[in-house]
Amino acid sequence: MIRTVEELKKVQAGVQKAMQKQKARVLLCAGTGCVANGSLKIYDEFVRILKEKGMYTTVDVLLQEESQGGTGTIVSHSGCHGFCQRGPLVRIEPLDIFYTHVKPEDVPEIVETTLINGQPVERLLYHDPNTGKASRNEEGVPFYQKQVRVSLENCGKINPESIREYIAHNGYQAIAKAVLEMTPEDVIKTVLDSGLRGRGGGGFPTGKKWQFARANESDKKYVVCNGDEGDPGAFMDRSVLEGDPHRVIEGMMLAGYAIGADEGYAYVRAEYPLAVSRLRKAIEDARKEGLLGKNIFGTNFSFDINIKEGAGAFVCGEETALLASIEGNRGMPHPRPPYPAVKGLWGKPTVINNVETLANLCPIMLNGPEWFRSYGMGNSSGTKTFALAGHVVNTGLVEIPMGRPLREIVYDIGGGVREGHRFKAVQIGGPSGGCLCEQHLDLPMEYDSLKSVGAMVGSGGMVVMDETTCMVRIAKFFMEFAQNESCGKCVPCREGTKQMLALLTKITDGQGTMEDLALLEELAVAVQDGALCGLGKTAPNPVLTTLKYFRDEYLAHIQQKRCPAGECPALKSYTIDPEKCKGCGLCLKNCPVGAISGEKAKPHVIDGEKCIKCDTCIQKCRFGAIYKD
Q: How buried is residue 477: exposed, middle or buried, by Cβ count under 10 Å (0-12/13-18/19+)?
């Protein structure tokens, strides 16, 4: 049990000393992406071989040993390293070697070459696709070079299931400093001075939210962690919870101390089983160590945390719907005011912060608000994580100072658009965000700049698209998502999104008219103005931004009955080039509906009335003679 800050520092020093005894340490990425690619099998193989060779050890064993110096190799899980495109990922310490695309069959060679002989396995290092140059560690990998990891600081560096490793990396020092050296008002002022704004989408100043809750007198107050990350393509909160759960717990404790709360709820969607499992273990371990519960560090401050698993409703990311779900009711938003800081969970003052916001608090408390403000620009301080996905070379989890241009994320970190294609757009902020185009590549990624062009930071999902993407279909995809996820409480969202989806479907089916386009735009504005909650109000954003920046594609669908990207099945037109067709008959034989005719060794033709646009003929043609408009 840790009852004093002196005991905390004693545990920290002990674990640090024990880990210095290790000869080597193997850190395997055990985020969801790498686990799906087999990293747990790699872990088991390392443990098996090292045990056979008498080289295996653990932190617990090292804590009990008196000997100094290399006494074995530790094998640890870690959180997400970020570079998901190259997973499974393995880091070898203290040799500072970073391996990508590791497989279980690579383990014997890594043990022999690296752990025994101290040399890298060249073929497993990252090789620059342009120069072929190998990078021994992350510092040499372009994906990492322009990143600054604050909320992701420990992800990939510590075992997320070890409270001792977290303590060794200054864990629970921030809450100790707060409760022993600062008043709640001091803590709130520090957060205000840092300029930290909510990282879940709205960007409301975190310190102000805490001020409101602090000012409201009540016999009970709550802190809620919003881990209901539901945007398509977003996985920032999940990765933090999987990779550094104690950082989120400590952030909730800081919020609790600041507003006068003694209880918290971590609301995490049930589709994140690994995040829930690791958070649950972290809470149990913190309780056992006396870091959660009554009279923390011998003070009057008491705080404990409950976990509530969400059922996967996107609307529960909206804070009033989230609170209703915790209370056991259907997750539906309520009008505001009153705001949760005044009347929240069970009618009591409640602060709701998302996972990433909470993960920023400890470094702010330990390093000071000026340090945090040294990153970012204007009214957007600090760093922001983005989940980079889509038609980009390097997909993964990215954390950069606020205000860096979009171009830097897509090209310098993301490695550019895949397969030599041309950049077309990026959808930022998920269904609540908007589409940006080529003219926005130098736009700073921060709250005010994005708002000025009709988009928003949102939770941080970022989907890159190339010229093969139909922007009308993208708008339809996000509208379909918003319509399916609408709670149905208010008419503008329930009926408005339904009608907008019907109009988009009509346009992509080649049946749209200019009157439909005008009605679509009118409906989008009406839903934006009239919806009850923030999710309904932002649902039209993908439609409005694609209409603004890609109106020519809508016009092509309506006026020319043509999809410029060739993605809309109803508007595809298939043609056989007589110059290239050899009359081999492969397309004719494989067409499932007999839409192709022609004599052997003579150019064939496609009957547009019969064609079901299945692409089979294109796939079977060996001469590139069939194309679609």
A: middle
Given the DSSP bridges, would you call strands 126-127 and 134-135 parallel, antiparallel or unpaired?
Answer: antiparallel
Question: What is the SS3 assignment for 4-50?
Answer: CHHHHHHHHHHHHHHHHCCCEEEEEECCHHHHHCCHHHHHHHHHHHH
Rounded-to-integer distance, Cα 398 and Cα 415, Å:
13
The three-state (H, E, C) secondary structure of 582-618, written as one string: CCCCHHHHHCCCCCEECCCCCCCEECCCCCCCCCHHH
Tracing tokens 């570079």 back to the chain, one arrives at: 83
Which residues make Cβ contacts (< 8 Å) with residue 412, sequence separation at least 6? 142, 145, 146
423-428, strands of its sheet edge to edge:
396-401, 383-390, 461-466, 423-428, 434-437
Task: Count CB-CB contacts under 10 A for residue 537.
Answer: 17
Characterise 585 by phi-psi region: left (phi > 0), alpha (psi -120 to 50), beta (else): left
| SS3 category, 398 | strand
What are the mean pLDDT values of the chain's consecutive 10-residue runs (629 residues total)?
Answer: 93 90 92 92 96 89 64 90 94 95 97 96 94 93 95 94 95 97 98 94 91 96 93 87 97 98 96 94 97 96 96 87 94 90 96 96 97 95 94 95 96 93 92 90 93 84 94 95 90 94 96 96 95 90 94 95 89 89 94 94 91 89 88
Cα Rg, the chain, nearest whole Å: 27
Task: Name every residue whose Cβ is closer than 8 Å to that of residue 144 and which is 6 or more positions away in sequence.
Answer: 82, 83, 138
d(CA 190, CA 184): 10
Residue 8's pLDDT is 95
CA-to-CA separations, 495 to 427, 446, 610, in angstroms, rounded: 24, 32, 36
- Beta strands 383-390 and 461-466 are parallel
**What count of residues does the chain have?**
629
User: Cα angle at 465 between 531 and 627, to 5 degrees?
Assistant: 120
String of b and e for 550-578 (b: at least 16 CB within 10 Å)? beebbebbbeeebbbbebbeebbebebee
Give the strand pairing for 73-78 and 24-29. parallel
Q: Which of 547, 564, 542, 581 is nearest to 629 (CA)?
A: 564
Q: Which is it for strands 222-227 and 350-354: parallel, antiparallel or unpaired?
A: parallel
Cα–Cα distance measured from residue 389 to residue 207, given in angstroms and rounded to the nearest whole number? 32
Residue 64 CA to its chain's centroid (Å): 39
230 within 8 A of 312, measured Cβ to Cβ: yes
What is the per-residue DSSP string for 86-129? G-S-EEEETTTEEE-S--GGGHHHHIIIIIIT----GGGSEE-T
Separation between Cα atoms, residue 543 and residue 525, nearest integer Å? 10
Q: What is the residue-wise DSSP string for 276-297?
A: HHHHHHHHHHHHHTTSSBSSGG
- Amino acid 59: pLDDT: 79
Residue 168, pLDDT score: 95
